[in-house]
């Protein structure tokens, strides 16, 4: 009981939501049917999706390294240390809400003589540009989409994602917004909160001077999202789902945005609900869509396993000093 009392209520809530959502969706889709569909899967297509993980994770790691361009000169950790932090953070994030891995990454980087606010800013920008890429892929896919694919709720999801990206862009590039943010931070009563808020705003604003790097990272992020769409399509082919690749380009960005909501652990429950809802609109049986969601989440877990090996056997990286 004592150990349970130390678990944050927010984490307990997320676990409960994940279990409840998953149980409800599995019950509607009939577990026996899901097992049958999964058991008949074509493993060649699953192997193709797994192979694409190398592309996925390579692009993700490289884009974060590019974002370290805004660190104070001379504080950038060695390549090996940064790479280890990235992969271990993906593994740790498997067991935490969607932002858990980000928090671990920022914390680990700050232990290598990097300013805490600069560490957090690099991770925040990585997340923001990732969301922006999801929105870009989703919006571009909707342009040639048939009317039946333009569900009002899908459009609302993309609109909210676009709004968030717009706000982030204003913070990074608008001097007036930065000044207003600094003024608000200066009024905080807690000195530590005031210092952190002001430092974060300044660190994020620094990216406004790195246009080429930001465009590079945005392009890499779009590439990552396109790879994820193709991965989902490969898994769908493995399960015998007849939906064309275009529909995956429409649906998967919506799924990814929903999975980013920090209300469950590792997207459990929300991913099953999103796949079942979206693919159900084009007549995919519930068992097949839920099986697809399970394989999609499992694929992400497989991609995170190298980080687990580094966490257990990789030792601890320390900053090299002259």
Walk me through the structure.
With 322 residues, the chain is mainly α. It is 75% helix and 0% strand. The chain contains 14 helices and no strands. It has helices at 2-5, 9-29, 31-39, 43-67, 79-93, 100-110, 116-142, 152-173, 175-186, 191-205, 211-238, 245-259, 270-280, 286-313. α3 crosses α14 (286-313) and α4 packs antiparallel against α11 (211-238). The termini are far apart. 38% of the residues are buried. Residues 1-5 and 318-322 have low confidence and may be disordered.
For this entry, give a set of tags.
mainly alpha, 322 residues
Strand content: under 5%
The structural class is mainly alpha
Q: If helices are DSSP runs of H or I spanning 4 or more residues, what is the number of helices?
A: 14
| Uncertain parts | 1-5, 318-322
- The number of distinct β-strands equals 0
Mean pLDDT: 81
Distance between the termini: 49 Å
Oligomer: single chain
Describe the sheet with the most strands. Answer: none
Radius of gyration: 21 Å
Shape: globular
- What's the SSE pattern? HHHHHHHHHHHHHH
What is the helix fraction of residues, given as a range?
Answer: over 70%
Topology readout:
Blueprint (H helix, E strand, L loop, with lengths): L1 H4 L3 H21 L1 H9 L3 H25 L11 H15 L6 H11 L5 H27 L9 H22 L1 H12 L4 H15 L5 H28 L6 H15 L10 H11 L5 H28 L9
Task: Characterize this entry briefly.
The chain is mostly helical. The chain is built from 14 helices and no strands.
């Amino acid at each position: 009981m004592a150990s349970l009392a130390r678990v944050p209520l927010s984490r307990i809530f997320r676990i409960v939501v994940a279990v409840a959502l998953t149980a409800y969706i599995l019950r509607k889709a009939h577990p026996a049917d899901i097992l049958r569909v999964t058991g008949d899967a074509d493993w060649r297509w699953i192997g193709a999706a797994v192979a694409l993980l190398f592309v996925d994770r390579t692009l993700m790691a490289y884009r974060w390294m590019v974002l370290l361009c805004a660190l104070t000169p001379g504080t950038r950790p060695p390549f090996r240390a940064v790479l280890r932090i990235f992969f271990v953070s993906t593994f740790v994030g498997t067991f935490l809400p969607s932002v858990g891995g980000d928090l671990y990454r920022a914390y680990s980087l700050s232990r290598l003589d990097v300013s805490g606010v600069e560490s957090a800013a690099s991770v925040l920008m990585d997340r923001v540009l990732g969301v922006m890429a999801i929105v870009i892929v989703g919006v571009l896919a909707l342009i040639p989409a048939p009317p039946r694919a333009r569900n009002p709720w899908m459009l609302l999801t993309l609109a909210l994602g676009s709004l968030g990206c717009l706000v982030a862009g204003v913070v990074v590039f608008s001097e007036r917004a930065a000044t207003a943010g600094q003024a608000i931070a200066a009024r905080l009563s807690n000195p530590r909160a005031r210092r952190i808020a002001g430092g974060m705003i300044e660190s994020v604003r620094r990216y406004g001077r790195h246009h080429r790097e930001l465009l590079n990272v945005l392009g890499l992020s779009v590439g990552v999202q396109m790879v994820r769409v193709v991965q989902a399509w490969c898994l769908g082919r493995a399960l015998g789902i007849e939906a064309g690749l275009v529909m995956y380009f429409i649906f998967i960005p919506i799924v990814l945005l929903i999975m980013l909501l920090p209300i469950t652990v590792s997207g459990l429950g929300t991913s099953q609900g999103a796949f079942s809802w979206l693919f159900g609109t084009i007549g995919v049986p519930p068992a097949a869509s839920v099986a697809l969601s399970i394989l999609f989440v499992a694929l992400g877990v497989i991609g995170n396993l190298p980080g687990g090996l580094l966490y257990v056997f990789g030792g601890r990286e320390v900053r090299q000093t002259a």
